[in-house]
């Protein structure tokens, strides 16, 4: 339909006009359609459930980390050592087992609680000294280690200390991958 005014022409398209009853029906159909789509959309998990899943993941990672021994070395006294000391390095702690004739002592130190590690060398053997922030005597020493082994385990422990200080999650690595990363981290030549 065209409408003409003085010097102008306008085109108007005819559109359907609705009655009030038809408008009400269209609105009801739209509301029903919206409500069915809302039911099909998954609602977000409650915050408590999300936190529970995060906690479960953290516990699983801790269990994985606490049950993996990365490196283990033993002492060797000359000529024979019937009661060798053992050092087990795990991702989160070090376990030192000092053996004696009829007894043994087991010390566990969290990596984060180690303040320093020293290597004392002699002509044939080395001594590894671990200084702890929390241990009562603050010092655990392991004598009669092969110097190469003492240097290696010190590097692994120092690398783990760096990972913990930088809050790097290591549970996704296999034990072999983690040890190789720790070896790469500390490639500095140690002069004896």
Which architecture name of the largest domain does CATH use? Answer: Roll
Strand order within the widest beta sheet:
3-4-5-6
Mean pLDDT: 80
Into how many domains do the coordinates divide?
2
SS elements, strand count? 9
Helix/strand-derived class? alpha+beta
CATH superfamily of the largest domain: Ubiquitin carboxyl-terminal hydrolase 26/29/37, pleckstrin homology-like domain
Quick structural summary:
By secondary structure, this protein is of the alpha+beta class. Helix content is 37%, strand content 29%.
Structure report:
This protein has 192 residues and is α+β, with helices and mostly antiparallel strands. It folds into two domains: 18-67, no CATH class; 69-185, PH-domain like. The chain is 37% helix and 29% strand. It has helices at residues 20-40, 47-66, 147-165, 175-185; strands at residues 2-5, 8-11, 69-74, 86-90, 93-99, 104-110, 114-121, 126-132, 139-145. A four-stranded antiparallel beta sheet has the order 3-4-5-6. It has a three-stranded antiparallel beta sheet with strand order 7-8-9, covered by helices on one side. The chain has a two-stranded antiparallel sheet with strand order 1-2. The longest helix is centred in the first third of the chain and has 21 residues, at 20-40. The termini are far apart. The model has no long low-confidence stretch (mean pLDDT 80).
């Amino acid at each position: 339909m065209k409408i003409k005014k003085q010097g102008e022409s306008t085109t108007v398209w005819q559109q359907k006009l609705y009655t009030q009853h038809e408008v009400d029906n269209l609105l009801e159909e739209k509301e029903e359609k919206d409500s069915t789509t809302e039911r099909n959309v998954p609602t977000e998990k409650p915050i408590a459930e999300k936190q529970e899943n995060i906690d479960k993941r953290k516990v699983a990672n801790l269990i994985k980390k606490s049950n993996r021994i990365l490196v283990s070395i033993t002492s060797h006294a000359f000529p024979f050592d019937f009661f060798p000391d053992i050092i087990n390095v795990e991702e989160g702690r070090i376990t030192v087992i000092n053996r004696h004739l009829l007894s043994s002592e087991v010390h566990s130190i969290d990596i984060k609680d180690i303040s320093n590690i020293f290597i004392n060398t002699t002509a044939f053997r080395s001594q590894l000294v671990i200084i702890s922030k929390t241990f009562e005597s603050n010092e655990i020493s392991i004598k009669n280690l092969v110097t190469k082994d003492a240097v290696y385990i010190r590097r692994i422990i120092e690398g783990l200390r760096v990972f913990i200080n930088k809050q790097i999650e290591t549970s996704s690595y296999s034990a072999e991958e983690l040890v190789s990363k720790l070896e790469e981290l500390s490639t500095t030549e140690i002069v004896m």
